[in-house]
Amino acid sequence: MAAAAVDRQRHRLRRLAGSGLRRRRHRITVHHRGRLLRGQRRGNKTLAQEFVANFWGGPDAQEAYFEGAQAVPASIEVLERIRADNPQVAKAADVGAAFGQIMPSIPEMAAIWAPLGQAEAAVIAGADPASTLTAAGTAIRQAIG
Questions:
Q1: Structural domain for 42, as ranges
Q2: How many beta carbons lie within 10 A of that of residue 10, not counting itself?
Q3: What is the pLDDT along the chain (145 residues), one digit of tens a residue?
Q4: Which pick of 7, 33, 138, 144 has the fewest CB atoms within 10 Å?
């Protein structure tokens, strides 16, 4: 059922994008955090808005994403659909809902995410984890006062 809905929406998006989408190979990709990525220099803003607003958040698309990624779905409706067949995923969602806190997504968080991201990349590249994360912590404390 979800695959058929995804195909219908894909055709709808192609019509919206016009002939340019049909003539060249174009792939719409959504990052796991829901960001729309595009493979061209110039994106189709209308297509992107249509995709995110009327497709990506829909239960059929979320269920198809769950089937492919096997990650906790963002949609409560989809979580309820898959609960019986995927008890471990449902349990993870329940524990997260009961004890988790929403991660802030505000511009001020850049003072934290930038140094932390740089430290993570440095550690992956081979830097000493202890000193790298200590330096990142110092930079974060200085930035936020």
A1: 2-99
A2: 12
A3: 455 656 666 665 555 555 444 444 444 444 444 444 444 445 666 777 777 778 877 888 888 888 888 888 888 999 999 999 999 999 998 998 888 877 777 888 888 989 998 999 898 888 999 999 999 999 999 998 8
A4: 33
Same-domain check for residues 91 and 130 = no
Q: Which of 99, 116, 136 is the endpoint of a domain?
A: 99
Residue 28 sits at the vertex; the CA angle it makes with 22 and 33, to the nearest 5 degrees, is 170
Please state the domain count of the chain. 2
Question: Do 41 and 86 sit in the same domain of this protein?
Answer: yes
The pTM of the full predicted model, rounded to 2 decimals, is 0.44
